Amino acid sequence: MKRAVALVLLACAIALPAAADTVTAQAAIARLFTSDKVDPDWFSPALLQQAPAAQVQAVVDQLKAQLGAFVNVDPEGDHFSTLFEQGSVPTYITLDGNGRILSLYFKPPIPKAKDLAGSVNAF
């Protein structure tokens, strides 16, 4: 009997996703820029009511076109710095309890300049 209970508990543990399986905010940002297409399942229904997945895809595509290939996401206090070949974007994100994006805000891109003249020309 004890063995049967242990097997049932083990089966339940295998069937339920672990908390570690929930995506982190940093991974959610990276996924946006490394996937070919934005998946609506990544977003909470509340966010999708404000900005459909196609609109998020358009912003992601625009940032990639403007700043080049995605490089990394670094934590920066209360937000993240999304790094690209030619610049970075301060990114604010919150996730719901299921790891879906609840809010997403990209501040204006910061172009990477090689020297002072490049910085002036970027503006």
Descriptive keywords:
single chain; 123 residues; alpha+beta; Nuclear Transport Factor 2, Chain: A; five-stranded antiparallel β-sheet; 24% strand; globular; disordered N terminus
Topology:
Elements lengths: L1 H14 L9 H10 L10 H6 L2 H15 L2 E7 L2 E6 L2 E9 L5 E6 L3 E2 L4 H7 L1
Antiparallel strand pairs: 1-2, 2-3, 3-4, 3-5
Describe this structure in words.
With 123 residues, the chain is an alpha+beta fold. It has one domain: Nuclear Transport Factor 2, Chain: A, CATH 3.10.450. Helices cover 42% and strands 24% of the residues. It has helices at 2-15, 25-34, 45-50, 53-67, 116-122, and strands at residues 70-76, 79-84, 87-95, 101-106, 110-111. Strands 1, 2, 3, 4 and 5 form a five-stranded antiparallel sheet that branches. Strand 1 (70-76) and strand 2 (79-84) form a beta hairpin. The termini are far apart.
